[in-house]
Amino acid sequence: MSDMPKQVTRKARRLQTRETVCHCCNQSYRFCWKCRCGFAICQTCMYENVWGMSCNGITWQCPDCGAQNGFGNQ
Predict the structure, then answer these.
(1) Are 37 and 64 in contact (CB under 8 A)?
(2) Domains of the chain, with CATH numbers?
(3) Is pLDDT above 70 for 13?
(4) Which residues contact 59 (CB under 8 A, 6 or more apart)?
(5) Which of 74, 27, 24, 21 is nearest to 50 (CA)?
(6) What is the DSSP string of 1-63?
(7) Most C-beta atoms within 10 A of its C-beta, which of 11, 44, 72, 73?
(8) 14-48: pLDDT as tens digits
(9) What is the percentage of the chain residues whose pLDDT exceeds 90?
């Protein structure tokens, strides 16, 4: 480990930007909707496919595992 204090390294690690690859369009994005199973979908693909993944606009169903995930609007 480096000579930096633990608190600084934790903050630096937290500030790192991690890009996620969308499972629909195969492009990297800083933000994707993610399921616990590992499925990720970008905002554009979610907007185009929300008609088949959500029936109420509050939750969406993962096409891989079938788990219910929230949009964070509650």
Answers:
(1) yes
(2) 18-70 (3.30.40)
(3) no
(4) 68, 69, 70, 71
(5) 24
(6) --SS-HHHHHHHHHH----EE-TTT--EES-EEE-TTS-EEEHHHHHHHHHHH-SSSSEEE-T
(7) 44
(8) 656 689 999 999 999 999 999 999 999 999 999 99
(9) 66
Per residue in 43-55, pLDDT (tens digit) is 999 999 999 999 9
69, containing H or E segment: strand 68-70
- CA distances (Å), origin 59, targets 12, 28, 50, 53: 32, 24, 10, 8
Answer yes or no: are the C-beta atoms of 29 and 20 closer than 8 Å. yes
